[in-house]
Amino acid sequence: MAEPWYTDCTVLPGVGDDEEEAVYDIGMASLGHNTAMMCYQVDLGTEGYVPKEKWFILSLTPDRTIDIQRIPGPPNPQGVYSMQLVRVGDAVVAYGGHTLNPIEAEREEYDDSIPRWFMAVYTIATGEWESVPYTEGDLSPEPLCWSCLFGIGNTLVVVGGNQHPPDVVSPMLTWEYSLDTRQWTRCMDCPRAMSSKTSGATFHGTHHIYSDAHLAYKDRKWTKTPIDMGDPTVRTLLAVPLYGHNQLMAVTKWCRKTSKGVQRFYLCDPVSNEPRPLPPLPLSARQLRYLVQSKTVMLSPTTMLSVATDTSVLVEIDPALLGPEYH
């Protein structure tokens, strides 16, 4: 039997309980001190398909529930929705997204949504947003949605993403944006395609992604090391850094015939590159199915929050799994 990795697991309501709104594309980033920022797209459904983005602050209460407060979002004159959120240094960056693509504006008919440039930086200390404009030419990424995002220090890293029309932009392009210099830098291409569904964790200046191989990103370069996850077709659901250098990871293998997902949890050490199996969370099959679509943050070194439309899960990590820096 694998060693336990949590001391408590509490199931909470999801964020899609309003029957008048359909919730899509949740974004979330930690603000520290048991709080997080969340945004998601809603379909107001009043006049056909009318998408809109909503913004919130989530706070952990003393009785282990989540208080959700609506907040104003960043300036958004184009009506972009489905942004992603990522913690970068002492800020949260909102990036990417798309808008509807009108076929015939007079008849209000729409084709698929198309990527639009959107980037805004939220300074946690002041609570203020700063919009980052698009730079024409080859000095910044093209307008994209569904990119793989992560932060290293005060630097945002953007990998891949979708463009319109499809296949215009390589899903392996890697860019960095410095919050210090406000400059973009093109970096080494990633060894494999990336998207917003790619989960990884950053430790001590290096971002680690586990899938069919261990990908590590540092100093604008990628390295790829083979590993054995037991099944090359699994997809990483969540990957969060624990205090120290271990990474808690959940993977899934989805069966289309039975519409069921099989979730497995691992503790990954980027030094040894040997994923160690962990016991599953005590969740029902329905709850695990929603975990596939959840967004996860660490509210504190020992508190993990996963949020989905139907179910949210609050997990207390066993401090024994944390590094000596925590103790």
CATH homology-level superfamily: Kelch-type beta propeller
Q: Which overall shape is indicated by the principal axes computed on the Cα atoms? A: globular
In CATH terms, what is the architecture?
A: 6 Propeller
Give me the side-by-side strand order of the main sheet.
1-26-25-24
Report Rg: 19 Å
CATH topology call = Neuraminidase
Number of beta strands: 26
Count the domains: 1
Average pLDDT, all residues? 83
Name of the level-1 CATH class: Mainly Beta
What helical percentage do the residues reach? Answer: under 10%
Number of helices: 1
Query: Structural class of the helices, strands and pairings?
Result: mainly beta
Instruction: Give the percentage of residues in beta strands.
Output: over 45%
Largest sheet: 4 strands, antiparallel
Oligomer: single chain
Poorly predicted residue ranges: 104-111
Question: What's the end-to-end separation, in Å?
Answer: 26 Å
User: Could you spell the SSE succession in H and E letters?
Assistant: EEEEEEEEEEEEEEEEEEEEEEEHEEE
Provide an overview of this structure:
The chain is mainly β. It has one domain (6-321): Neuraminidase. 2% of the residues lie in helices and 49% in strands. The protein has one helix and 26 strands. The protein has one helix spanning 285-291; strands at residues 6-13, 22-32, 35-43, 51-60, 66-71, 84-88, 91-95, 98-104, 109-115, 119-123, 128-131, 148-152, 155-159, 174-178, 184-186, 201-203, 206-210, 213-218, 221-226, 235-241, 247-255, 260-268, 276-278, 295-300, 303-307, 311-317. The strands form seven sheets. A four-stranded antiparallel beta sheet has the order 1-26-25-24, with helices on one face. A four-stranded antiparallel beta sheet has the order 2-3-4-5, with no helix packed on it. A hairpin with a 7-residue loop joins strand 3 and strand 4 (51-60). The longest helix is centred in the C-terminal third of the chain and has 7 residues, at 285-291. The radius of gyration is 19 Å and the shape is globular. 36% of the residues are buried.
